[in-house]
Specification:
The protein is α/β, with parallel strands linked by helices. The chain folds into three domains: 104 residues, Beta-Lactamase, CATH 3.30.450.310; 145 residues, 2-Layer Sandwich (Alpha-Beta Plaits), CATH 3.30.70; 245 residues, EAL domain (TIM Barrel, Alpha-Beta Barrel), CATH 3.20.20. The strands form four sheets. Strands 14-15-17-18-19-20-21-22 form an eight-stranded mixed barrel, surrounded by five helices. Strand 19, helix 16 and strand 20 form a beta-alpha-beta unit. The N and C termini lie far apart (91 Å). It comes from Phenylobacterium hankyongense. InterPro entries: Cyclic-di-GMP_PDE-like (IPR050706), EAL_dom (IPR001633), EAL_sf (IPR035919), GGDEF_dom (IPR000160), Nucleotide_cyclase (IPR029787), PdeA-like_PAS (IPR048820), Rev_trsase/Diguanyl_cyclase (IPR043128). This is Bifunctional diguanylate cyclase/phosphodiesterase.
Length: 552
Amino acid sequence: MPNDRWMWDATATLEALGAADVALWVWEPDNDRLRLTGATRALGLGPLAPDCSSAALRALTLPQDRASADEILRIQAPGGEIAVRLRMRGAGVCIWRGVWLEEGRRAAGVAAPETRFAASDQDALTGLLDRKSFIAQARERLQAPGVHQLIVADLDRLRRLNEALGHERADLVLAALGSRLAAAFPPDALTARIGEDEFATLCPIDVSPGPEALRRALERPLRVAGFDIHPTLSIGAVEAQGGGEAPEAAELLRRAELAVESARSSGRGVAAAYGRGLESDGLSRLALEGDLKGAMERGELAPYYQPIVRLTTGALSGFEALVRWRHPRRGLLMPEQFLPLCDEMGLMSDLGAMMMREAARQLSVWRARHRAAGELSVAVNLSTGEIDRPGLLSDLVAIRREADLPPGALKLEVTEGDVMRDPERAAVILHNLRAAGAALALDDFGTGFSSLSYLTRLPFDTLKIDRYFVRTMSTNEGSAKIVSSVVKLGQDLALEVVAEGVENAGMARQLLALGCDYGQGFGYAPALSPQEAEVYLNESYVDGAAPVKARG
């Protein structure tokens, strides 16, 4: 009866070892003999084969491993592991790795390129764990008793960083954030880069510095390739009891990422904790996408108007038009809740044209009803990439003609990232828009991407200071310096300066002392419906000034 059991023969073994760039070795310390077979020539170990002494092996050992080599070449107990790095031909490195056998009289193992053994669990850019390895190790950590805290931090506006700086420079920002993350947590904490712009850490809650400490560590300004970068992050946190009843690591990570999404929907630089109420959000996304398809035609997407006030007199200067979705079942939805969906569905160009048309029409109505409103302006944001939309200029001309608006009454706000992606092309487009009667504002100025040499050549009327710096200027010396510098720059270039995020009278006074021209924010009013904005307009003219809250 034939034997169906297949056996390895010597030729097949050698062919397999050669194809895999692997050599086998056996070490006999009593005879001071090392025997090798397999891909010795490919590994640069040909001079050692078929056998050699320990002295030859030591000669190829990396200097930093020689003490280890001397130790493990001595007889050891069975089961003891061996691992030494050897120099290969071409300056490469291979690993000599194995285990002691037969009561310590012999050891055997394999030699292979270091890359075969190198940790594949690391993110190449930051050196932190990758997502798969983080989940695997977190699963083990969660078996330990006690309360564990998982924190996930997502870098805001990575797309704009890539557009403005280029991917290589943006990678430097990510690498720096990875280093800061590792330094902010205890050495034995698990730290990982789990997505392109997403970081995670897991450690016992009693040694965790917490989400706010993480924010302080990661949101410090940094300088990359001559650019001052001020990163902001959306942070989610979740706690879990370790032990036999601990949640699965991947599930815990999902919960933390839900919290990140909740934080992002509240604006940049926000932290949120996981709660059961977040679970319904993911399930409702598909329904929201379906509702969005006809929302514009039904008039559900519409501009709301946030007042812009002259700080010196308190007089109303104009409004910024901000899109809102008046959802028939969910109520009023903020942009963060649906603009990413609009982008994914290719609706941003249509939305931008609608916002410009409706804002211009509304301003025309106010100008006709109120003689004092003749000096008001309305600002409309251009979404990312909209500056390159082929119909933008013709839309502007037609909309101004239909609304009968004078030059400068309709202001277009452009982000720094859009300008710096192709400054020469942007300059041509902006000059054309300016010639067609639009005023121009550079939005979120101070976030660190602009080249001042280009700023002097672009036809902007206004600089808008990002709300993050305004919000933190009383507690962050760096933010205060940036606000002061932008105001001074605006004065030197004869540009108006608008500070976003003015939340109270104290902020307004501080900005006024710096010489800032205008302010907008919740201290004056949130974005108002057209009817509410008209009431606000009337009251401001009757009172002579727009009121500002004493406290934010």
